[in-house]
Design a protein that fits this description.
six-stranded parallel sheet, 2 domains, 15 helices, alpha/beta, disordered N terminus, single chain, nine-stranded mixed sheet, Dihydrodipicolinate Reductase, domain 2, globular, Rossmann fold
Length: 488
């Protein structure tokens, strides 16, 4: 039988002994003389969390890189670090750079890098590192464009480096156990998936660029722009609101899709959809929409059947009524209020036997009918578990205060994915969200944005990275780079 809820003691015990023979130990347990030398690219906001967590997992932080000096008081952050308590002070022996190209050139002894920049730098920072033989932990989505995701997966294989995408909950017990249960048939053959988020929590739908303002002291704005088209500085873009602009971010879908869509994409063995279509409100040439619904059609799955996979963002309550939600017949009769669904879970799966309401950072899932759980013999744990995986950081950090908003928000927690990556470097056994897996997944997520931006159903030829019915999509599939930042 499926246990509907684990208390904390049982949960920690289960995580520690799960899948005997598969437990992955923290790198710190292997001895200080064997520590991996890491350079961190992007060290504010989510970058601060990544830097502290990879250090806590056992790495030696030897290089720090950010276009904005953390010690400068004019960087427009709501909460400033106390004097003497910045990330630079926490790692005083690390060398500081503003340009990751300089760091990679000046520090050939670095073993690996973390990449926690805005999305438009993910490709360049990761590719330059991999081509120098450096292992890479890159935040999600691993790229800004579909073509970039393909190239990053190919490059990781070519240079035999160990990689990991920062969809942290992939390393946690809820997602890994969810995969095992779905594949064991707890709800039978899965035909539909509905996944949602309340994001965006930043502006989207802008029709014009904000008015130019003075660049704050200590911020290298030209480097921040990097490979993207040059735009004048505005606090309405950086440090936090860049996600809503297509030049720099990937909107609500790019921010949360690689977190929330992860479990069913993995469990159902999905690859590329053959078509994608969307609905939206407020999308413009320069900015993502205020809300959107993205419908992916996958021709086959783990169960050998097609899957309808629908994404909803902007799922928020207005005057007590939730908007942009999955069809009410799938959930309304089963819960006292919509809050019990949309604040507790982030997806539901529909199978031939019933439905599963799933949340990636918890295990008190709901099955309808309830007899599915009561009469189901749990399968063995066959997916490797990670020490610390129960405390994954499941959300992005709020770039305004440098803390994560999800489970494991303390930067000293959430070490599971970093432990897994560091052990992959030491053992040669890939982390489970390595670029060979997370590259195609990022492609799929970003295809939703492609359909949003083109404004019609996309018929997708995955092999050739081509929207067969929309030649105008080619410039989005593979974006152009600013002069001086060209890369193939």
């Amino acid at each position: 039988m499926i246990t509907p809820r684990l208390n904390r003691r049982d949960f920690l015990r289960a995580s520690a002994v799960a899948a005997f023979g598969f437990r992955i130990l923290p790198a710190s347990a292997r001895g200080a003389n064997d520590r991996i030398q890491v350079g961190c690219i992007g060290i504010a906001g989510k970058g601060y969390v990544d830097t502290m967590a990879v250090a806590g997992a056992g790495a030696a932080i030897v290089g720090l890189c950010d276009v904005a000096n953390p010690r400068n008081p004019e960087l427009g952050r709501k909460k400033k670090a106390k004097a003497g308590d910045t990330v630079l002070d926490k790692f005083p022996a690390a060398k500081y750079f503003t340009d990751y190209r300089e760091m990679l050139a000046a520090m050939p002894g670095i073993d690996a890098v973390t990449v926690s920049t805005p999305d438009h730098h993910h490709f360049h920072a990761s590719m330059l590192a991999m081509r120098k033989g450096k292992h890479v932990y890159c935040q999600k989505p691993i790229s800004h464009s579909v073509w970039e995701a393909r190239r990053m997966a190919e490059t990781a294989t070519q240079f035999k480096v160990q990689t990991q995408m920062g969809n942290q909950a992939h390393a946690g017990e809820p997602i890994r156990r969810g995969v095992e249960l779905i594949r064991a048939g707890v709800i039978g053959k899965v035909t539909e998936v509905h996944a949602w988020t309340d994001r965006p929590i930043w502006p989207q739908g802008m029709a014009a660029w904000p008015k130019a303002e003075k660049v704050p002291q200590g911020l290298d704005w030209d480097l921040w722009i990097g490979p993207a088209p040059f735009r004048d500085y505005s606090p309405e873009i950086a440090p936090f609101k860049w996600r809503g602009y297509w030049d720099f971010g990937a909107g609500a879908l790019g921010d949360m899709g690689c977190h929330i869509m992860d479990m069913p994409y993995w469990a159902l063995g999905l690859t590329a959809p053959d078509w994608v279509e969307t609905k939206q409100e407020g999308g413009t040439e320069i900015a993502a929409p205020r809300w959107s619904t993205v419908n992916y059609h996958f021709p086959t799955s783990y169960f050998g059947a097609p899957v309808k996979f629908v994404w909803y963002d902007g799922v928020k309550s207005k005057e007590g009524v939730y908007q942009h939600t999955p069809p009410e017949e799938l959930w309304k009769a089963d819960f006292p209020t919509a809050d019990h669904v949309f604040r507790r879970f982030d997806m539901l799966l529909v199978g031939e036997k019933g439905r599963m309401f799933f949340g990636r950072s918890r295990q008190d899932w709901v099955f309808k009918p309830e007899s599915l759980a009561n009469g189901f013999t749990e399968p063995p744990k066959t997916i490797p578990r990670v020490a610390g995986g129960q405390n994954v950081v499941t959300e992005d950090a709020d770039a305004k205060d440098g803390k994560a908003s999800g489970s494991g928000a303390n930067a000293d927690e959430g070490r599971g994915p970093y432990v897994e990556w560091l052990n992959a470097i030491k053992s040669g056994t890939p982390a489970l969200s390595n670029f060979a897996a997370s590259g195609p997944f990022s492609e799929t997520v970003l295809l939703g944005n492609l359909a949003l931006r083109v404004g019609k159903r996309i018929q997708w030829d995955a092999k050739n990275l081509k929207a067969t019915n929309a030649p105008e999509a080619a410039a989005i599939v593979r974006r152009a780079y600013r002069k001086g930042w060209e890369m193939a």
